[in-house]
Design brief:
This protein is mainly α and about 190 residues long. The protein contains ten helices and no strands.
Length: about 190
């Protein structure tokens, strides 16, 4: 069962404003009946301001009246009418200044050891641009002479889980498209 928002504060309000039994309040808020009784006695939740479940749309007055009339009845949470905000899509990955110089090394490592990854996947994993990936591939990057391929997981630029997920997606896509899957054995699962 889904619990109401702020169960303890809701219990405080229900104890103060209704004649519901401790069992009904406990069942609705996901608390133990003795805990509800302790709140009613003033032993627990001292200072917690009651939360009105009617004002927040979690209960209706009719639902409370129905359960007050029948001590065996159980309160039912009202369907949510408020749309919760959708989680924001992840934007570009932030790389600390201290690690930015490691990015070209990580890109070179991925291009050499995991050629199945698309440029877009490399960009997503390392928080870089397609232009940078292309310059490292073509050896036209301003610092090409000093780039030494190094594992991005060891450098702390991405997690092994993220890398494995992107590799799996790339391999599945290549297989769907009937392309050969170029892969170096040391690229996966060594952490």
């Amino acid at each position: 069962m889904t619990l109401p928002l702020m169960p303890k504060a809701t219990a405080v309000w229900l104890i103060d404003k209704t004649s519901l039994t401790f069992e009904q309040i406990a069942d609705f808020t996901g608390m133990h009946p003795l805990e509800v009784q302790a709140i009613a006695d003033g032993d627990v939740a001292v200072g917690i301001v009651g939360h009105d479940p009617i004002a927040s749309g979690q209960l209706t007055r009719d639902e409370i009246a129905r359960c007050e009339a029948d001590p065996t009845a159980r309160l039912r949470l009202s369907p949510m009418t408020v749309q919760l905000p959708k989680p924001k899509a992840k934007g570009a990955r932030y790389t600390p200044v201290a690690k930015r110089n490691d990015r070209p090394d990580a890109i070179a490592w991925l291009l050499r050891n995991v050629p199945v990854l698309s440029d877009q996947q490399v960009c997503k994993l390392l928080g870089t641009t397609k232009e940078t990936v292309q310059k490292i591939r073509d050896r036209t990057h301003w610092n090409s002479a000093n780039i030494k391929p190094r594992d991005p997981v060891i450098l702390g630029l991405c997690s092994q889980t993220d890398l494995n997920r992107e590799i799996t997606l790339a391999v599945e896509k290549a297989e769907r498209e009937g392309r050969p899957v170029p892969m170096q054995p040391e690229a996966t699962g060594h952490h």
